Amino acid sequence: MTSALPFDDFRNLLANLPAADTTAKARMRTLFAKADKSSNSLGRIEDIAAWLAAWSGRAPPAVTRPLMAVFAGNHGVVRHGISPRPVAATVNAVELCAAGGAAINQICIANDLGLKVFDLALHIPTADITEDAALDERGCAATMAFGMEAIAGGTDLLCLGDLGVGNSTVAAALFAALFGGRGVDWVGQGSGADAAMQLRKAAVVDAALAFHGGHLGDPLEALRRVGGREFAAIAGAILAARMQKIPVLLDGLAATAAAAVLHAANPAALEHCLLASLSPEPAHARAAERLGLRPLLDLGIGHGEGVGAALAAGLVKAAALTSSGMAAAARG
After folding, report:
1. Which residues are known catalytic residues?
2. Position 190 confidence tier, pLDDT thresholds 50, 70, 90
3. What is the pLDDT of residues 269-312, one digit of tens each?
4. Can you list the alpha helix ranges (DSSP code H) found in the chain?
5. What is the number of other CB atoms lying within 10 angstroms of the CB of residue 193?
């Protein structure tokens, strides 16, 4: 970082986003039109293939190095009793992934995905957002920069997921900051909150909004004040993928909230992204609609870990293979 303020570099990137390769996208549509089939008979498979072509610059596209990146963070606001799980559950989930016993491990094996799980200082929860900013600007910017490293080593499809006790409440606070409304409009059951706990979650969101007041109009300020490390890292990963023109699959409430920050800064920021699946949280569907994201899958998955993105990656890989195989047959 060489600018005067830590966020300045990210603001510059958001103001200068690369565009899709419309020529490759049109070429993919033409290849499908020439295939021996009815017009648009493959539905969203054709849309996915065209999207891949637009962001890879190749028609037909190929997915040969897909990566599942999961970011894990802990939150000081959990002390208000907003989750039925203890903070230690985040570490336990990361350790289970490392041991190969988590659901995400099995789905990555099934769909031949690389897997990286990032422990974002789990031993140091962010500050309690009802009485302080979750992160200072330097710390938030550094975490975004760390998230950008998810694509180091190369990938042609980035799948993003999260782990973090209490992060459904943090996501609700971000949605309320970005889209308006009160806590009750954005909180849900999360990992199993009963009615009383949901009221506490809503009260926490309202308290955070009141404390941070007029500072939430700037999306990056909202991210650092009422977000968290996994949110910042995911935002950084999405932005890095855009700069390298790598297509992205988003999964889960936290990843969608992180994406919403970038969308608020530049409405074109998510054009390289598809939403893998919807969680059972009612707020997820509302946020997705506000962002113009239509899920590929709707399986009622609220598990976390990026499970929905890993499942949807199989669909995206199938779309790429379908397009290349049919294009080859048409040429033959």
Report:
1. 305
2. confident
3. 999 999 999 999 999 999 999 999 999 998 988 888 999 999 99
4. 8-15, 22-34, 44-56, 88-99, 103-110, 137-148, 167-179, 183-186, 195-212, 219-226, 229-243, 252-265, 282-291, 307-331
5. 21
